[in-house]
Design goal:
Distance between the termini: 117 Å
Radius of gyration: 58 Å
Oligomer: single chain
Number of domains: 5
Strand content: over 45%
Shape: flat
CATH architecture of the largest domain: Sandwich
Amino acid sequence: MISDGLSVSGSKGRSSMPLRLSEGDSFRLRCSAVTTSPEHTHLHVTWQIKSGSAWRDILSLTHEGKFQPGPGYEERYRNGDIRLDTGANDTYRLSVSQASSADGGAYRCLVSEWVRGADGSWQRIQEKSVEIASVSIQRTALDVVISTSNVSVTERDSLDLTCNITTDRSGIFQAEVMWYFSASPDDTLADAQLLLSMDRDSVVSDSTLISLSHVDRNSYRLLVRDVDVEDSGYYFCEAAIWVPLHNGSWHKVVERTSAPVSVVVTALEPDYDVFLNASKTPKFSDDPTELHCRVTNAQDTEANLRFAVSWYYRQRLRSDDVVADELLATMDADWTLLPGDRSRERIQNGEIIFSKKSADTFSLRIQWTSESDRGDYFCVVSAWSRHRNNSWVKSKDVTSAPVNIFWATQDYTLTVEAVKLKPFFVAGHTFEMTCKVSSKNIKTPRYSVLITAEKPLTDQSSPNGTTRIISLNQDSVVRLEDWTDQTRVDGVVLEKVQENEFRYRMYQTQISDAGLYRCVVTAWSPGGGGMWREAVNGLSNPIQIDFQTSGPVFNVSVHSDSPTIYQGEVADLLCIVTMEGMALEPDDMSFDVSWFAVRSFALDREPILLASLDRRGIVTQSRRNGSSDISLERISPLEFRLRVHGCEDHDFGNHYCVVTPWVRSATGVWQREPDIRAKPIFLSVKMDVLNAFKYPLLIGIGLATVIGLLSCLIGYCSSRWCCKKEVQETRRERRRLMSMEMD
């Protein structure tokens, strides 16, 4: 039995005392615990708080000499805000720093006495407690207000705002102030921009155009110099109260944010005028035009204001139709030229020049003005203002009055007359015609000439009926256009006889040259930079070439004895030429034969050239993808045979031949007749089923027979030599049963 020798008491013997503290203050509580037990006992001291109906542990000094913080006090114990110290006369002191509202309540000291048993385990003998104090924490009041409400200032002026703070805090404390800016009143501190801050030591963050000053103990002034439009928005102030701790550090006890104040910065719009005049106006086409766009009555143009210009063109119509303005070019504040779509090419060629004569004068020069340049011109001058960060922002546009560029002109006229020099001629002779040109209202014109021929619709060389033969440009350079007759490369000539007269010759005319011939003339006038500008086009009257002959008439047909064949066979196709009218000797006629195939039933695909045989007997074959081959030969003067060897399924289709007759005239000149196309014949390629399966069946039967005989041989050998066994049968005695009567 251990006697009760434990006594617990508060400071100076008082059981409980009231304490009124402010938020962030520090306080200490003491209790005394003594035991007179003769046994070797240990004390376990725990400080507890009661803010509701239950006691909660704050910090304990266990009977094993260890400090143990209560639930929720671990962080404060590690930071040193809660400590438990032992002192003289068996006292235990609880120290609390940075008191908050959660630290308010009744505090008591709970002491238990422990003894170690013989087995080494600890046993609690008794426990006593005493209430030490009743602590109440008063919150620190803080009010943050900006002295002005909505503010409106003019650009480049100063913005002055004052933040007033009011607190009921007494004693030693310091205030921290921060100014924020946001574009919306609903933005949070995380979204807002921090302008300036003053910490509790009155140290202000650095800024060039913004300053923060401490006017008095409770007032902080924000001054923003040289404001611009970007400074429009919402400003608010945030303040915090800091109190010192016993260890020399500071603790923030309260923080508040003011209501936002709306600030509107009115733009300082520059005042200036724009005047456009023409220093040079054209009186004739290709004369220069020069316009000057001037800025007048402008202030401070060099330091804080720059000008950019945009040039526009508007076509003037006689009706009331609205025409969109076309941008010619823009010269920005950095003197960078940005050309528009209308004048981009002419600017690159140097025909249009944009320049900046001075800071307030811009010019537009058209080196060679054309009729398409007639119309209204105006300029738009944009003012760019300098901001605090040395950036430039457009602040105003001023449009000048339009200037009309116009001169009276007469329409260009061009007349072309074609004359046939030889009214009658026959095939093989030279065809000759001249083109005479006359023009009006064109200054120093030059002409380019193109000879065209309108062939009959039966001519397959030009599906649209018109062929471009030869041309001569304004610099007298001759060019063959669509003349494809390689045997008569030098057979056409176009030359310039006089400044306005041109002669066309065609040597050794063929019957296929029949048609209507015209001169297409283009008049050119000198433009800027040595360039030629197209003025007007003209078309001459037609000159007809018509050969009246009584020669033979050729017909062509395709024939085949077997248009349906099997794969692997040879297909024979005959191209037969028949002749009506005047009979010719075989040596006086020759033929170009070409074979074509259309791989479809309805002739709805492009024909494929198979082979051709010219009148000299030269055969030309096109490239083939399959294994079949073709041959083309002349078997008689009027018959040509096409053979397809080893036909495949892709050789089917409509086949026809195109024949070009050549007839020798009485003068010994070969004349080319129009091409003749035969009516197509359909070639069908089938598969021979019997021949296709004959060899596979024979091979299969042979293999099956060989395999069967081999199987029989293997079975016989196996049973004869491999599977033979000696079987010895056990002899058994056979005894007959005797009848009972014999027994």
